[in-house]
Amino acid sequence: MKTRSAVLVAAGRERPYASSTPIEVGEIDLDEPHDGEVLVRIASAGLCHSDLSAVDGTRPRPLPIVLGHEAAGVVERVGAGVTRVRPGQHVVFSYVPICGYCEFCAAGRPALCANGTRANGAGTLLSGGVRFSRGGERVLHHLGVSAFSERSVCAQESLVPVPDDTPLGIAALFGCAALTGIGAVINTARVPAGASVAIFGAGGVGLMGALGAHASGALRIVVVDPVASKRELARSLGATDVVDPAAGDAAAQVRELLEGGAEYSFEMAGNAKVLEQAVAATRRGGTTVAVGLPSAAATAAIGHSALVGEERTIKGSYMGSAVPQRDVPRYLALWRAGRLPIERLVSGEFALDAINAALDALASGSVARTICRLS
User: Fold this and answer.
1) Are 222 and 198 a contacting pair, CB within 8 Å?
2) Distance of CA 97 to the CA centre of its chain
């Protein structure tokens, strides 16, 4: 079959991307689903910094590749042996296809699934197969999802069924931003009610973290970001305080606001220097969680003596330490109850043909989350 898709053909081109066009949009070929695979009509896809990192070369991916990893859609057809979803069902994608039997899955840490990670690194489905092609050349899969396509074939392990009345225009955000940001607070840090929290970075994931902290009952939530509109959005979402890093040492500002520092801090920007600030913003005995993905070569300087003498904790969080089959329905339920108003994070929508310009807006830092409506 044919499908219109956004194919990343070159990484590291200069901005503006609307002119250099690292992504080509057009018809490509898509095979029918093989055993254990599912054909999904994509309804909506969110544009995330992880997509931008593939485009700017910060996190290199094999090319060419159909970009996008945050999506929701409707199952159209299933291959032999599929038992988890049925045609007509609404689904949210998980950007780690979870095999269910590797050592990490067996230990209850499916976000680290060894087989899913291996497939994602190779640009294939969980089986090792590739279902996209163009002119006889293979076109690879982005994190098993390939969200910026009218249709995509994925492993059934990449899908989380959701109620059929779930509005697909907003459901995509539960597959990455919510899993990652909210999960970092709830699953990785396990922030208790009454705690103090500092969040460095108010993009889509950082704002989700603020929502998660608010839903968890954190008493003080400080959000640090250089963009005034994002700081104000964070305040409207439950942040008790906001900090402009341009006004001086951000960590010092947080420590002053929280009388010694935050009990929990989160680096949500994918920047090693910001991670250093997040660590410095915690109090004695504090915990810092690194969530944003920098380049593989990035390093941060952390005081060894303070780490030991003040019993500080530094943790990484990938995909919010999520169990997608558990967490997506849980976060959806909180959204339905009015406790996670994630629709307020959407800065706007764009058509598939405008994806290069949408990347420019994301790279500028002016937007939190933009959504591509595909059907």
Assistant:
1) yes
2) 14
Domains contained in the chain, CATH given: 2-175+341-373 (3.90.180.10), 181-317 (3.40.50.720)
Q: How far is CA 16 from CA 30, 325, 362, 364, 367, in A?
A: 30, 38, 11, 10, 16
User: Mean pLDDT for the chain?
Assistant: 97
Helices within 186-236 (DSSP H only): 204-215, 228-236
Nearest to 234 by CA among 368, 120, 100: 368
Residue 281 has what DSSP assignment?
A: T
Q: What are phi and psi of 90, to 5 degrees?
A: -80, 140
The answer on pLDDT for 162 being more than 90 is yes
pLDDT higher than 90, residue 371: yes
Q: Is the dihedral of CA 242, 203, 121, 101 positive or negative?
A: positive
Q: Shortest CA distance to 226 belongs to which of 178, 269, 290? A: 269
Q: Do 97 and 177 touch, CB atoms closer than 8 A?
A: no
Would you call 183 exposed, middle or buried from its count of C-beta atoms within 10 A (0-12, 13-18, 19+)? Answer: buried
- Averaged pLDDT, 324-343: 96
Tokens 């269910």, residue? 100
